[in-house]
Every structure is written in C-alpha cells, then in structure tokens.
Amino acid sequence: MKLNHSIMALLLGMSISTMAMASIDIYEFDSPQQEAQYRGLIEEFRCPKCQNQNLAGSDAPIAQDLKQKTYEMVKDGRSDTEIRNYMFERYGDFISYKPPVRPSTWILWFFPPVLLVLLILGWIYKARKGRSQLSADDTQALSSSEEAKLAKILAQHGDKTDDKQH
C-alpha cells in the first residue's frame, strides 16, 4: 500500500515538473548577438491576447507562436526593422510598445506632451491672474460706508485698550 502511494507521488511529481519545463523556451542561437536581438524583440512586442503583457512574459498560445516566428526570423538573419515590419503588417501597431510615428499614432506620441504643456500654461495663467487680482484688491480705496465701519471698529478697539491700561 505504501509502495502504491510512493509511486503515485513520484508520477505526480514528474508530470508537474514536465509541465513546468514545457513553458520554458529553449532556443539555440548561432551567436550572442542573435540571442540579444531575439530577447530585445520579444521584450518589445506586446502579446495580442494578453492585457499589457509582452511576449517574453506571456504563456498564451499566440505569444508562443509569435516567439517561434521571431526566433525563425532572427535565425534567418533578418534585421530588427524587417521583423518589426512583418509584425506590424500582420498585427498592426498594437503589437509594439513603441509604435511608429505616423498619422494613425500621432495621438499616442503627441497628445500627452501637448496636454502637459497646456496644463502648465493654464496653471501659470491662473497663478498670475490671482496675483494681479490680489494686488488690485490691495490698492482699491475703501467706500465711504466701509471707512465709517472701520473707524467705528477702531474706536471701539481703542476704548477697550484704554480700559485695560487703567
């Protein structure tokens, strides 16, 4: 009975380790440059199925296929530009975390800096407007009714300080 449990545990352990090894990509390259090129590209390319995950970190079937295709193209001696162009033609600009600058991607490239500049200019305008209103308020003369109220308050305050001194 103990032998059956031991065999079952051994088989279970072997199947788990086999499944874990299946998700590890083992590619052989002709040179360290090819491996670096491959690693750089799979870090740059986005998995079409996953939400905001690159090919290197994805185990989705489509990611596995794209890693295999990238590997084959690197082994064939294709340049980064050729591989990127292939991926863009096939999967669109979404495939890359660094999409090319073209009219369809202008909003991605130019909207954030333009928005930042507009916000800074608005903040500067508002700060200057607030200062100019503050200094204009300081230089305005009091109306006659406000002067009368102020004189009354000062007179009352003067009477209270005189009483404390005596």
Automatic annotation (TrEMBL):
Keyword entries, A-Z: Cytochrome c-type biogenesis, Heme, Iron, Membrane, Metal-binding, Signal, Transmembrane, Transmembrane helix
BP term (GO), one: cytochrome complex assembly
Parts of the chain that traverse the membrane: 106-125
Pfam families: CcmH
Any GO MF annotation of the entry: metal ion binding
All residue ranges annotated as the CcmH/CycL/Ccl2/NrfF N-terminal domain in the record: 11-154
Entry GO terms, CC: plasma membrane
InterPro entries, alphabetized: C-type_cytochrome_biogenesis, CcmH/CycL/Ccl2/NrfF_N, CcmH/CycL/NrfF/Ccl2_sf
Signal sequence coordinates: 1-22
Described purpose of this protein according to its UniProt entry: Possible subunit of a heme lyase.
Family membership noted in the UniProt record: Belongs to the CcmH/CycL/Ccl2/NrfF family.
Name the record gives this protein: Cytochrome c-type biogenesis protein
Organism: Moraxella pluranimalium
